[in-house]
User: Which sequence fits this backbone?
């Protein structure tokens, strides 16, 4: 097994608190090794003990059992993170305004097509595989292109990371 970036959707926002020390402990109890976290927004870096999708589901279950709320877990290998960064289709004016929204799966074709027909002001986005690439004109905090809009529009959940964070996750999974 190789190190992976394991990203948990929407923790430490809106009352869904998971301390990073406890997240590292949960991952260790599930058999992960070489465990670290990056900022308190659900970025776990580890070597899972089994197939990544099995570990991701086990971590979802463990978080739900311990904290009483469900959050999706989406992981990517270093090569997948590098591929997502290389595939980013927009000019990067500021790493903190350019995002990869990592999806739990590639969206269905019909949802992807209808979503690509929508406009979100000056924000631009494009689905590539199981990632939604976004460049926010004025930052994610003021955009109408929010996580709930993305999930409804594409029919799959995901979690966004700005390119600065993606670069850090690549470094940490090396």
Assistant:
């Amino acid at each position: 097994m190789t190190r992976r970036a394991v990203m948990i959707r929407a923790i430490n926002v809106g009352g869904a608190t998971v301390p990073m020390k406890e997240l590292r402990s949960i991952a260790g109890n599930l058999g992960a090794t070489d465990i670290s976290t990056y900022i308190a927004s659900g970025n776990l870096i580890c070597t899972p003990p089994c197939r990544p999708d099995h570990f991701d589901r086990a971590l979802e279950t463990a978080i739900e059992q311990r904290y009483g709320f469900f959050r999706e877990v989406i992981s990517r290998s270093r090569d997948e993170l590098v591929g997502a960064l290389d595939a980013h289709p927009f000019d990067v004016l500021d790493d903190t305004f350019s995002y990869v929204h990592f999806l739990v799966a590639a969206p269905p074709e019909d949802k992807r097509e209808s979503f690509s027909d929508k406009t979100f002001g000056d924000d631009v986005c494009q689905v590539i595989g199981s990632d939604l690439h976004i460049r926010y004109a004025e930052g994610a905090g003021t955009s109408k292109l929010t996580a709930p809009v993305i999930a409804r529009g594409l029919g799959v959940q995901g979690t966004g990371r700005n390119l600065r964070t993606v670069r850090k996750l690549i470094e940490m999974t090396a």
